[in-house]
Specification:
By secondary structure, the chain is of the alpha+beta class. It has a single domain, classed as RutC-like (60s Ribosomal Protein L30, Chain: A, 2-Layer Sandwich), CATH 3.30.1330.
């Protein structure tokens, strides 16, 4: 088993790996809208936060030898189900024809006040 703790300036902030690779599968920990170069928390509209979190997942997958087209499953956590349509529009644009299995989980609030957290499972 291999663990990825840093990808460029993206780093885990706690006792976890950004991703864990087991055999030909990569498991990406939940990602927020954090600038991968400056590590600045990028708060904004749900559409902006969703795109940045997806890009962070993509960056971690690439470091693991995978890519967004190889994502099998994703979980998206949002603070309000009313944001679903806006998130889905960004998600649809990001993935195009690729449609991984997905769960969207409405929660009360997310860490640091972010509007979305996204994790992923992909193959290598």
């Amino acid at each position: 088993m291999k663990k990825i703790f840093e990808v460029g300036n993206l780093k885990s902030n706690g006792h976890y790996a950004l991703a864990t690779i087991h055999q030909d599968t990569v498991y990406v920990s939940g990602q927020f809208s954090i600038d991968p170069e400056t590590r600045e928390k990028k708060f904004g509209r749900i559409e902006e936060e969703t795109l940045q979190a997806l890009k962070n997942v993509e960056k971690i997958l690439e470091a693991a030898g995978s890519n967004k087209e190889q994502i099998l499953r994703m979980t998206l956590y949002i603070p309000d189900v009313k944001l679903w349509d806006k998130v889905d529009a960004v998600y649809r644009n990001f993935f195009g024809e690729h449609k991984p299995a997905r769960t969207v989980v409405p929660t009360n609030e997310l860490h640091f006040g972010f509007k979305i957290e996204i994790d992923a499972i992909a193959y290598i």
